[in-house]
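not sure who needs this but someone in the group chat was asking about DUF2116 family Zn-ribbon domain-containing protein from Mesonia aestuariivivens so here u go. i didnt clean anything up, its just raw.
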Amino acid sequence: MTKRCLECNEEIKGRADKKFCSDYCRNVYHNQLNRNSKNLIRNTNNRLRKNYRILEELNPAEKSKSTKNQLLNKGFSFDYITSIYITKKGTIYYFVYDQGYLPLENDYFALVKKLDS
C-alpha cells in the first residue's frame, strides 16, 4: 500500500510517517486549514490598531477629553479593547494597550494613557 500526499494526492516517498510529498504541499494544506482563524485574528488586530491610533491621536497630552461622536466619526469601535481597569472606587477604565478611556456623562469620555509603573 502506498501513502498519498494529503494535499495533492501524489505518492509519498521516504519515511513511513510522512503525510506530505513536499514542504509546499504541507504549507498549502495547513494554511487552508487555519485560514478562518487567521482571518479572525488579523481582523481583530487591525481593529485594535485602528482604535489605538484614534485614542493616541485624540490624546496627545496623555490626559484629555473627547466626545462619543468624535470617536465614532474617526472609526472607533467600542467592541475592541485589550483590558479593563477597575479602581478601588469602582470606576471602570477601558484600555487598548496603554491608551484608555473612561465613559463620562453626556456622551463624553476621559482619555488617559497608562504610565509605566
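also The CA atoms of residues 49 and 101 lie 15 Å apart. if thats useful
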